[in-house]
Amino acid sequence: MFSRGSKVPAAVALVASGLGLLFSSNSTADYAAHLDRRLHNVHCSFIPGMPATNEAEPCRVAMYSPFSALLKDQYWGGIPISLFALGAFGFFAAFSLYVLLAGERASRRTLAFFAAIGVTPLLVSLVMFTISLTQLGHLCLTCVGIYISSALLAAGAVGAWLGGRDETTRPALSLVLVPAWLAALGITTLAPAIVYAASMPDERPYITQCGEIKQPKIKGDSPVKITGARPVQPTMLFEDPLCPTCKAFHDRLVSENIIEKLDIDLVLFPLDSECNWMLDQPLHPGACIVSKAVLCGERNARQVLEWAYAEQEYLTRAGKAGEGVLRAAIKQRWGESLLRCVDDKKTDVRLNNHLHFASENNIPVSTPQMYLGKRRVCDEDTDLGLRFTLAQLAPEVLK
Amino acid sequence: MTQAVDPAPARGPGGGSNLGAKAALVGLAAGVLLCAGSALAVRSWTGTAARNLVEPEKEKPKVAIADQAEVAYCTPQFKEVLERVLHSCGLAAEGEGARRGCKPADVKTFASISDDDFNALFTPLKDRGGVVLFDEGHEELDDTAKKLLEERWYARKGARYFFVVARASKTGSVSKNNALSHRRANSVMFFLSQLSGDPEIEQKVGLLWLGNEFAQLSKEYCAWPRSRPDEKCDEEPINRSAFVSWVDCRL
Asked: The whole model's pTM is what?
């Protein structure tokens, strides 16, 4: 591909490392910004230099996912894996620069080493790409930027090696340098993560500051019971089946196997003004009908809820198209009898009781909300800080 | 990090090996700079977050708090009467001494407003409420009355209190009309208890029973939703009634 002795592969590797540095620093900066427990815009583009935006749902999904960081039980939000990319791309940038400047003075062993380690970011990227597609169902564009950088780096590193491997005029090199380089790679890769872990703020004083539920029982009614396989923690959830954040939260509970340890009282809180008087206009049209379907699910309530989450995009479109389309979808999946229950006045009353329960407790008009026993889990602790918060407030859930 | 000092043959005076060494030094310097720079950047990001964490947010996004409905007709005057009704008629009082319902004398005492002003307070409830009509001298609910009550009861939405204002005939003795009005209020209450199965219904329903000495309805109220829409309506039948409605006001 490249002529023998060409400097182009090293230049490609250098540019790729620079891009990798840029994308991984964007990703790390976004992650670290959230340590202040506020909502921030997120970078979500593979075009270098694009600013952070509030329309970054796939990148937010990736950030909140269990695959975005390590040691989430020990550190609030965990140690983001982008930190390792940041360190590694720094090493590769320096090494590429050396190979570029040294030209024909770079030994064949140097080039072989460069090729061998230059493909490792690509291997990691392939793993993360597969996880994105199979587990998250979204491609985070900043992550795609890192994948592209990794691929270019691998191409440059392998290209440099292929171009120089037959050149006998290149100098020989002591084997001793290889472990030294590996050690340098290890140090530079770990350094940002160590600094991050050492300097991140202590979130423990804040996770118990979001109040308690005043009245834990619904008057004259009952919540929907969702009991995991080994329930150890009484939990109350306020959810809207057509709320994307609720779906993401539910997916986290399932994928991290937390849901099986919870004894859940589910309170339906649809953000749809058709039944919810607390809104001027429907945030999620059709959510009232789908909530009634969950109530009517009785013993299968969890299955109905998970169906609603799985089909959320379609049901949201159906909700906007009109009640008939939504009712047809419910009937097709759950049959005539469940639809009759949805239409029953008593189901209206039940849903209304759930909404009144929310109003009597003066909870924030937002979903999802989680209460461990009576204690409210802060919103930011239901996403980035979920595992850390559970480790602090209900450690048996993570055992 | 790249400390390769290649012992390669020289390619001219001071040539190749110097170049290799310089490249190695530049690479090493770049590596150290990038590593230190990354660490400093990370330290700066976490430091900013730590400072923000302890500083109160200047423009904290306001989050609505769930509460009962509060609509335009909940004027201070309406709320004043509502509150007096709730306290005087037992809804807001709890425990053994709690009273259920208000008789005309109570209403006169606590409302402290004229008949017309009292009725006018309920005008905004025209579409939300309904008038259940009774036969002369009777308190039994017919099927149309039950249907209207059911419709209105199930249309609770965000309201906390359900009002029942029973009235008796315009004619007849005061004591007889008071008793009849009371029985009509109780008929409605009994039906609602059966319909809802709610053990705490007494915390929701406020009962008033009026005789012909206070707040009688004029003929105009015939235009309100009635349980007998096809029957002839004037001041006589419209006062053999119970006005029912959820009230969308907070107290």
From this structure: 0.83
